[in-house]
Amino acid sequence: MCPDCEDFARTVLLLGQLALYADMAGADLDFVEAVSLSLAVSLPEPPPGMFPDDSDGGPASAGDC
Fold first, then answer.
1. pTM value?
2. CA–CA separation, 33 vs 21, rounded Å?
3. Residue-by-residue pLDDT tens, the chain, 65 positions
4. How far apart are CA 58 and CA 55, in angstroms?
């Protein structure tokens, strides 16, 4: 796996694990908020080819149907 792909995958994995932790009883939500914002900001651009070419990364709008 290329270094950029590894970075992206690792960050997405950490965000997913953090989301699971946030749903646990007794989770420290202040920690979750601080770490999730940091991870989200550090999320690199997806490497080329990670998503289909027709994907712009945004949600489809009503006009796109």
1. 0.66
2. 11
3. 677 778 888 889 999 999 999 999 999 999 999 999 999 888 877 777 777 776 555 555 555 54
4. 8
